[in-house]
């Protein structure tokens, strides 16, 4: 990964240590109000520790010290050192914002010192030198968006307004991700200083919508119809078989379809079987004819209604010469 070269003309931090922290004692009461000597002494010690860590190349630890000191006693010198630590850590975008914050510090209510003025001037110069080195990344998303998407860079969600726009970013490897529901598309990119890159994330087609579930009520009716129809067909089969058997028996006992009185009971039983067979056939056909179509292509479940229904309220209204009812619905 390419890093911005260190500026050889910059004096070591330790050379301006006395001036920088002597300036802290000259803050006007409006700035240092409520800060006792112990607080300023702690800030000075943290700053000194940060400079030592910076010179050792321990930039993350140095940044922590400078930030803590700046929280105790805000000063341009501390903000400048924090910005330089961010540059060394490769966090160039954050460094430009920290430089800018230093240049915008209001010193009108402070006892302005040469160290403070120089820190602001150095911050302005170093920011202008750093800005052209920032890589930029443009993220584009194509394909069906469905109900909406979210875009992430290195696990952090970015505003959708930045999609399709150049976005400053730190050098180094990055992961870009777009999410649409359960669908995720990722791409990795490795950037160097001054590089301009575009990443296109292509979303796959939307999944086919699930068929609507059948209405439970009509599904129950369908199974009842099938059950009744199956019972009717079973009755049709049983009684039909008995009727055929009885018919063959009566044909031998009653020639020319004329039965003697002793076989009238058998003839009546045969008639009952015929009626039962017909009834079973009708019930079976009707039951299956209603149940099977309902089961295959019955009504789907009705969409859920909004649970928040407007309540109906009313109250009598009685006034001078008037009477009535007032309500809401």
From TrEMBL:
InterPro entries: TPR-like_helical_dom_sf (IPR011990)
Keywords: Membrane, Signal, Transmembrane, Transmembrane helix
Keyword DNA-binding: no
Transmembrane segments: 221-244
Domain of life of the source: Bacteria
Signal peptide extent: 1-22
Membrane listed as a keyword: yes
Name of the protein: PEGA domain-containing protein
